[in-house]
Amino acid sequence: MRHMRKMSAAADADMVAEHASYSNPDHREVRRVIVSGYLGCAIEFYDFLLYTTAAALVFGPVFFGNLPPLMGTIAAYTTFAAGYVARPLGGVVFGHFGDRLGRKHMLVITMTVMGVASTLIGLLPTPQTIGWMAPALLLFLRVVQGIAAGGEYGGALMMAIEHCDQNRRGLFASLIAIGAPSGTVLASLAFGLFRLLPDSQFLQWGWRVPFLFSALLLVIGLYIRSRVSESPLFLQALKREGEMSRFPLADLLRHEWKAVILAVVTSAGPLAVYIVGVTFTQTYIRHLGFDSSIALFALAIANGVNLVWFPVCAHLSDKYGRRPMLLIGFLLSILLIGPNFLLVSKGSPFLTTLAFWLLGSFAAGPIYGPLGAFLSEKFSTRTRYTGASIGYQLGSTLGAGLTPLIVTSIFASTGGTSVIGVCVFLAMFCGVSMLCVVLSRETRRADIAY
Q: Is 437:323 a contact under the CB 8 Å cutoff?
């Protein structure tokens, strides 16, 4: 009996030590983790926006020039969608090994693969040189991008919230998330500047330069990421249990399937709105006869605001809860979808910038600020990488992967005369995501150490 009491006391001491380590993190290490995750997210969204912008403006005439312009754009969006279909596979693969072997090494691999794939897109020959192999290689590299991206965001979130204290999880997760507007700003400015070239030069070589710049971002990101230590909660769980789950996906679907469904649908709505802003809106502006570079610079300005706005909203979610902020964001998005297209249709740079700010910043902040923490807090340490990655990436596939193709087809079905169907589609998407938040429990004070 005395021996059992000693074992119990030792176990209690270990539990207290684990919580002390989690509650009093090494601040220098936390900074490295945040910078590493931020850069990974920035590279992901830099590459992402380059591809989406190129799909809207370049890949149609360059790789699908034998098709009518709108059909060429739809073909380009199909390759874009393929990357999103591949993302859940990346979430499963990197989530599996991240939950079994650790977060850090998986994140080094995801960053490397993303950066290399984007650089190679900038070096692709055209169909005039290698025929059908050109669009086939474009599709292949997009799928590779998607697989790597599928493991990046979820893993970076895990490292952030598993290194920081409980009361600041929303804020620290948002510091990873602002990599998205940072990468968007950088890609918008890069593509916007080269878009000022004459069309012949832009289509011949100008669009390639921003893709090649991915190589420099990759070198910087890998230098930072290689110096980051493993997640303390993962190491504590490994010490406590002796071995992590052999099949995290099976455990996830057996014990936490409801959380997966809620994570998927909650993510899908805002991603659908976001992707329409960075893809279809440019197609719409060009269809109206306005300069598409207006949208790129408006997007850069709106996302510049998000560098501050996302953390502010995340901090508010640490104080008042994830659910209230998310519900406010979804309601604002539903109300502002129609006015967004109305302002854009005027062709004014100021009104276009205002439209992007209202929907892509003012309404997006209360969603994207707390979203990362909200998703991560739903899962246990044993399955958190897999759960958050699959939840977010299936949401990406559902909400963002096919949305450009769907809304462009809806718009084309009207003869290019009305966006009412597009607005209704997006509002319904956001409404379903909002319902999932209503059905979810508050996670702000959840104990994620187990």
A: yes
Which amino acid makes up residue 151? G
Task: Spell 195-207 as b/e; 16+ CB within 10 A means b.
Answer: beeeeeebbeebb
User: Among residues 185, 209, 214, 213, which one has the least CA distance to residue 197?
Assistant: 209
Does this model's pTM top 0.85? My answer is no
Quick check: 369 and 174 in contact, CB under 8 A? yes
Burial of 276 (0-12, 13-18, 19+ CB in 10 A): buried
Residues 124-147: tens digit of each pLDDT: 998 888 888 888 899 999 999 889
Task: State how far the Cα of 232 lies from the Cα of 227, in Å rounded to an integer.
Answer: 15
Give 6's pLDDT tier (boundaries 50, 70, 90).
very low
Contact residues for 334 (Cβ-Cβ < 8 A; gap 6+): 427, 430, 431, 434
Domains in the chain, start-ordered, CATH in brackets?
28-439 (1.20.1250.20)
